[in-house]
Please model this.
Amino acid sequence: MRVAIIGAGAGGLFVGANLSGKAIVVIFDGNEKAGKKIYITGKGRCNLTNNCDKEKYLDNVVNGKKFMMSAISQFEPKDTINFFEEHGLKLKTERGGRVFPLSDKASDVTKTLLSCCRQCDFHFNEKVKKISFSGDMFEVETDKGKYVFDKVVVATGGKSYPLTGSTGDGYHFAEDFSHNIIKPKGALVPIKLGDNFVKGVMGLSLKNVTLKGEADGKNFSFFGEALFTDKGISGPIALSLSSMINTAKKVALSLDFKPALTEEEVEKRLLRDFEGNLNRNLSFVIKGLLPKNLVEPFLEKAGISPEKKVNSVSVKERKSIAHLLKNFGLDYQGLYPIESGIITSGGVDLKQISPKTMESKLQKGLYFVGEVLDVDCLTGGFNLQTAFSTAYACAKAIEKDFQGGKNA
Ligand SMILES: Cc1cc2nc3c(=O)[nH]c(=O)nc-3n(C[C@H](O)[C@H](O)[C@H](O)COP(=O)(O)OP(=O)(O)OC[C@H]3O[C@@H](n4cnc5c(N)ncnc54)[C@H](O)[C@@H]3O)c2cc1C
Model:
């Protein structure tokens, strides 16, 4: 049994790790080494899974929830933790169940996977150009030669962060076998804003705020940390929101600077703050409620001069300030390009893939695992878990197939 794996990222390596020594496995990658994307995950620390049950994993799947039910049942987050620990990688769990190597080194995750792929044959710096099927064998054509295989696993990733090698080739391979591709879009990607104040607050981080989005009539909100960029907003809550709005036609965004308080409570707080500062400028009081750089843009949006004396602020103006602190509208201009996405949403249409085995329903012996599939999750280690679970399901199916004597 000869198995080709296209891509030495998390998904490809995990298929290899589970088949190593059980079949002749050749892993192709256009890069000079394995795991280029793994290296930059979790800011170089690799949040490789989430210490949670499969229900919580499924809650964090944005697209492909139903499809993932079988694969996550076959290989749960706790199996990922056990796998790495059994292979010598010590792990730790941080806030929100995020699991990292104890060493804080993403490269240790790749090293562990590579040690499990000892009996696989790696072909680095070898980009696959074409996969075809004739008779009962696959032909894999690379920029260096042609090879024949019984089975082919496409683990080429999505289209985001293309410098790591994921340039969307897997979609073309799938199309060559008549697969439908759901249009790839950036997910977990910064949001572009048209507001003039953004340039002046670049680098400003907001903690404990809620970012709200209304997308084609559906409401979403994320609480936590946001970060202004040169052209918009990023940080965990903006990235998460982007995944929910990336296919919407009409989007409205706003920030709630005081999510722990109701609008009435914010107004009461304003009244208290006003009382002690009646002869001061309004900007002085607002500075106590917002980061310094946001005071001016905030009052500009409120249409009130920062120099206005607190004692001359009308009830109507006070109410509008309270309302704005809870609903600071942002001028949504779309998302950053797909290349900046932590993950790609869209990809190989799940309807044409067996959720149990990851085998194509259109071509026997052809499998798709990881980000090339139309599955994307929120942050927290869930995307790598998707790569591991789909890879595991695929490897077990291939193993079962050749143990059953088929294609042996
Ligand atoms: C900055 C960043 C941080 C992230 N952090 C996290 C995190 O902490 N936790 C988490 O769960 N997820 C994280 N992710 C997402 C996660 O890294 C991916 O979902 C996951 O790595 C996908 O694995 P994959 O094997 O499907 O694809 P990839 O890792 O993209 O691997 C695909 C491989 O295929 C190779 N390839 C492509 N085309 C060809 C071809 N034609 N021939 C040969 N080889 C080819 C590529 O060179 C590449 O090595 C992060 C992503 C980014 C960009």
